[in-house]
Amino acid sequence: MKNKIYLPNGVEAQEACYNEFPIEEYNTNPFIQALPLLADKKTIIKKLMTIPPFKEEERELDSSYRVHIVQRLYKLFQPLPQHVRIWNMVFSLVFQGYMARNPFDKEYIRYVNATGKQIINRTYDINTRTDFRTTANCGLLIGYSGMGKTTTVNKVLNNMPSVIVHDTYKGQHFNQTQLVHITLQTPHNASLKALSLQFFMKVDEILGTNNFKKYVSRNLSVDAMLPLMGIVSQNIGLGLMVLDEVQHLQNRGVQQMMNYFVTLMNSFGVPVIFIGTPASYPIFQTELRIARRVSGSGEVIWNNMANDNEFRLFLESIWRYQWNQKFTHLSEELIQIFYEETQGISDLIIKLFVNVQQMAIYSGKEEITVETVKRTVKENFKMMKPMLDSLRSGNPYKIAKYEDLRRIEETHNKRIERLDQPEKKMKQNIIKVNQVADTISSSIKPKHKILRDYTNDDIRKVFIQANKSDVSPCLLLLEKGYIDEMSIGQGDHFL
Asked: What residue stretch is flagged as signal peptide (predicted)?
């Protein structure tokens, strides 16, 4: 049993207890040995799973209680393959990031002391190459809003101690407080100064230190703050920095922000995890220095679930938690309507299931039916309708209107392709359609009149009608529904 320690500011910490790993190089570094043992897939699932309390007799309670009890479902967490992948990514980044930062390695101690003196004397240059070779990488978690990106990372980090207090290591005095991970929110204006200030305040809040007062002054520039962040990270043995809502970087300052984090990784050895919506993906595509670090196991693309076994597993895992008086078995019809109305977004699945039960309780029907699901969606999902309609259409141009819903497709060779600048591509496609239409239209003009009886759904009939009426084939195809109409609002333009 690991002993808990409370810091002077009341924050709970853990007394260092050193584990032996089958990996030899992990057993010479106190920062690594103080971390929990690595887990297999079965253990990961068990640690992540959260099951709400449930008793069948609760279905007999008065409706005024049951409409509250059903909200327990918001605490449910059903692990899926993507969650296991994120767990492994997080643990790998933390363990590997500490490899080059062994506080008992003479070369590393010499580097930390030299760097610290330079920073204090304000002679440190972040562009100067050093002998320190970092083992820190960065992770990338990009996915739809509502899929549980932040929740999953937080649940994984909850299985690591946040603060570890060391005293002695293998008989040697080692007075060290280790901060394993810290989570920061990307400022809405992508301000590096605001992010730096947030770092110092968050560290002080957790450890009860006074770094903000010690290092920060009103006129301190961002270039001066970054080395100070680095030296604080070294002093507290920071294992991982998580940067959430990274899509805010697209507003401005992308290049400067990327330089910022590359320096943090290269010069001070701190791994970083970026979490964001699909809107942030182009940021990393244009930065080779970041892209090469997230390639492989450090990149998780999390789209909405397809209507497949994974979706059914998720729905089946929550279906038993019904507080209506009449238990409804999960039918194929209900599976299809739930997918149709949520498009496989896990947060919406839970919300719909909760609201459907509440609707059944309020109405007195006390059972889940397709009609109840449709009524619930109509009354409670009004704001989501345009987004869900765009997903249901499968039209990439309509989906592109909502930046946090753009699907990122992963190809067989693990490279990621994204539909950039949809308006520009749409214009190009319309030109191509017109060119093809003109070609086909001219090619179907026979030298001798030949009677052809095409069916109404035959596209060749459209071109013949266009030829006879002197109407553009493209317009007629649009009218007949063969081409999706893309409405261009006032002020919009093609790129």
From this structure: none
- Please state, in angstroms and as integers, the Cα–Cα distance from residue 319 to each residue in 61, 136, 276, 330, 356, following that order: 19, 42, 30, 7, 12
Q: How many alpha carbons lie under 13 Å from residue 462 in its C-beta half-sphere? A: 18
Three-state SS for 412?
coil
d(CA 173, CA 175): 6
Q: Distance of CA 309 to CAs 139, 312, 349, Å? A: 27, 5, 15
Strand partners, 50: 77
Query: Alpha carbon of 33 to those of 21, 23, 105, 285: distances in Å?
Result: 8, 11, 15, 35
**Pairing between strand 138-143 and 299-302?**
parallel
pLDDT interval class at 190 (50, 70, 90): confident
DSSP character string of 40-109: -HHHHHHHH-B-----GGGGGS-HHHHHHHGGGGGG-B---HHHHHHHHHHHHHHHHHHHT--TT-HHHH
Give residue-wise pLDDT tens across range 364-405: 999 999 999 999 999 988 877 777 777 777 766 676 666 666
Which is nearest to 349 in space by CA: 377, 369, 327?
377
Coil/strand/helix, residue 10? coil
Residue 20 structure tokens: 């032996």
CA angle, 20 as apex, 107 and 156 as ends, to 5°?
90
Query: Is residue 115 within 8 Å of residue 231, measured between CB atoms?
Result: yes
* Burial category of 260 from C-beta neighbours within 10 Å (exposed 0-12, middle 13-18, buried 19 and up): buried
Is pLDDT of 429 > 60? no
CA separation for the pair 123, 436 (Å, rounded)? 65
Dmax of the chain from CA atoms? 101
CA-wise closest residue to 343 among 375, 397, 279, 386: 386
Q: What percent of the chain has pLDDT over 70?
A: 77
Domains, the chain? 4-34+80-302 (3.40.50.300), 317-405 (no CATH), 421-480 (no CATH)
Helix (H, G, I), strand (E, B) or coil at 209: coil
Quickly count: other Cβ atoms within 10 Å of residue 473's Cβ. Answer: 22
Query: H or E segment at 399?
Result: helix 396-399
Site of tokens 């050193």? 18
Beta sheet of 138-143, edge-to-edge order: 181-185, 240-244, 272-276, 138-143, 299-302
The pLDDT of residue 432 is above 50: yes
- Three-state DSSP class for 413? coil
Are residues 27 and 34 in contact, defined by beta-carbon separation less than 8 angstroms?
Answer: no
Claim: this prediction has a pTM higher than 0.85: no
Asked whether the beta carbons of 285 and 279 are under 8 A apart, the reply is: no
Burial 285-315 (b: 16+ CB within 10 A, else e): eebeebeebbeeebbbbbbbbeeeeebbebb
